[in-house]
Every structure is written in C-alpha cells, then in structure tokens.
Amino acid sequence: MDGREQDEAQSKYSFEDCQATADWLLSQTAVRPLVGIVCGSGLGGLADALKDQVAFNYRDIPNFPQSTVHGHAGRLVFGTLKGRPCVCMQGRFHLYEGYPIQKITMPMRIFKLLGVETVILTNAAGGLNQDYKVGDIMIIKDHLNMPGFAGNNPLAGPNDERHVYVCLFRFGVRFPCMSDAYDRELQQLAFDVGSELGFSDFLREGVYCVLGGPSFETIAECRMLHKLGADAVGMSTVHEVIVARHCGMRVFALSLITNKAVMDYDSEEKANHEEVLQTGKQRAEQLERLVSTIVTRLEHNNNFA
Ligand SMILES: O=P(O)(O)O[C@@H]1C[C@H](O)[C@@H](CO)O1
Ligand SMILES: Nc1nc2[nH]cnc2c(=O)[nH]1
C-alpha cells in the first residue's frame, strides 16, 4: 500500500466508525466487559466457557470484518467467566485474508470503547526454540514484528490527535512505546496460576515473531528467525497488541505451540493447518482453565500507555 492508500484505509476505521460499532453492541447487551479475549486457530472453545452468553455473528455487527479461516468461528461472545464480565472474539482476522492491517486490528479499538481494560490474546504458533515441544504453552514476553519492518504497521497513517487531547486518550499517541507491550505482572500471574494448576511442565516464556503468511516458513527462514531471537512463529497477535497498547489496554498473550518449525533438511515433517487445529483440541481444556483462572485474579487496571 502506498501512503495515500494507507491514509484511506485508516480513515475507513475512524474513531466515529468504531464508536458506532461499540454503541450498537452496547445497545444489544447488558454485559459491560472489563476483559477482552481473542481466540487463536482452533482455540475458540475458550468462548464456550463464558456463562450467560450473548453472542453475535460477525456478519451481523456493523462495520465488522468477516472470519474466513477454518478454526475461526466468527462470533463475538459476551458473558462472564467466573463472574467477571468478558467479551471474546471466537475467531480473528489475519493479514493473509487480504484485509488492510487497520481492519484486522479494529476490534481492539472496539474493545477499548466497550470499556475493556485487559486484553488476553491466544494464538497457534510453530516452535522455533529447540527445547519446545508440541503442546507447550508459551507466555509471550516480547515480539518481532516482521511486517512492521517493511512499513506495515497498524498505526501507520494519520494519528487522530483530536482524540488524544479531547477524548481522554481513547486511542493514543503518535509514537507509542512497545518495550512494555506485554504486561510483566500478568506474565508472573500466569506462571503462578500455571504452577497451581500443575501446568509448569508445559509452560514456557518466549519471543513471538509474526509473519504475513499464509505460506508456512522455509527451513532457511526458520533458521534465520531462530537466530534473530524468536522462540515461536505465527501469523497474528502482534498487530492487535500494538493497537491495544496504543489505546492503553493492558496486554497478556499466549502461544500454543501446535507444531515444531522444520529446521532440518533431513526432516520429513511438514507444517499443516490440520495439525495446528488438532493440537488446539488436545490442549483446549488446560488453556481454558489457565485463562479463566487468570481472569478471576485480575485487578482493575488504569494503565494508560
Ligand atoms: O490466529 P492464529 O494466529 O492462532 O492462527 C495461526 C496462524 C494461521 O492463521 C494458522 C496456521 O495454521 O494458525
Ligand atoms: N507462520 C506460522 N504460523 C503458524 N501457526 C501455527 N503454526 C505455525 C507455523 O509453523 N508457522
């Protein structure tokens, strides 16, 4: 996209558009969520854990994109997790679906306007770290934003300063900090909860690298990403994190290691989406317990970036 196209894309998802969508949702449900959850590939079962659900198909929500990927149901579910009001995206959007980056991250701004304070994101990822096993859950402590290196950042384009000054920092500043993108207290909380639940054997922490997809990586690419410091590779999350932090929400993110990245020319293994969904099913119950227990321990947050 050139600069003009980027400006156009950005203006299509303006504050007013997001506000209209948020107002529509708030008029349809009495739930006032403080926690927003994004389910990764094959991890949509998390949404089923919500009680007293009010659910919307993405196609029925004004201005909302549509899910096109198998394993992403395309529903926005409001409800409570152990009494805590939540909203859960059962299906997310990816760059490779052909959407502008501003569109795939728009739900983060909707979360903000709904009153969400803490965002919990999950994804399926390939393990680059040689100590990782399929089924491990990696607490994301940092990221490598490869599309961002090439100028594809969800915050590119005009920054609506009006809202910075007039609307109580609803969106955010021109140059947001990302060295504190992943909340350290929440990472510690996740380790504590994981240990109480007996999950320590498969709980890790590491660096997630986002690529555009949809092709999986070559062997040379996996080797390079590992050398650059990535522990896991995927096709999502980072863009959402940037927008969530831009508008001042606290962020916690998890990768389920659904497959081992192929690093060796002698290997017969081949990354495939069926394996990704299958591993999601196998770890679904533990992931759900981990996330719902973390949610019950969250404190109120006013951490504006
Ligand atoms: O939405 P996530 O990041 O969990 O989805 C990953 C990346 C691709 O969409 C898909 C590949 O199997 O899983
Ligand atoms: N890019 C990428 N995304 C994934 N999502 C799940 N596994 C993988 C993988 O190996 N590579």
TrEMBL record:
Annotated InterPro entries: Nucleoside_phosphorylase_d, Nucleoside_phosphorylase_sf, Pur_Nuc_Pase_Ino/Guo-sp, Purine_phosphorylase
Location of the Nucleoside phosphorylase domain: 35-295
GO cellular component: cytoplasm
Known catalytic reactions: 2'-deoxyinosine + phosphate = 2-deoxy-alpha-D-ribose 1-phosphate + hypoxanthine; 2'-deoxyguanosine + phosphate = 2-deoxy-alpha-D-ribose 1-phosphate + guanine; guanosine + phosphate = alpha-D-ribose 1-phosphate + guanine; inosine + phosphate = alpha-D-ribose 1-phosphate + hypoxanthine
Function: Catalyzes the phosphorolytic breakdown of the N-glycosidic bond in the beta-(deoxy)ribonucleoside molecules, with the formation of the corresponding free purine bases and pentose-1-phosphate. Preferentially acts on 6-oxopurine nucleosides including inosine and guanosine.
Homology family: Belongs to the PNP/MTAP phosphorylase family.
Domain of life (superkingdom): Eukaryota
Positions that bind a purine D-ribonucleoside: E217, N259
Gene Ontology biological process terms in this record: purine ribonucleoside salvage
Residues where phosphate binds: S41, H72, R92, F93, H94, A124, S236
A molecular function (GO) term: purine-nucleoside phosphorylase activity
Entry EC no(s): 2.4.2.1
Keywords of the record: Glycosyltransferase, Purine salvage, Transferase
Entry protein name: Purine nucleoside phosphorylase
Biological or metabolic pathway of the protein: Purine metabolism; purine nucleoside salvage
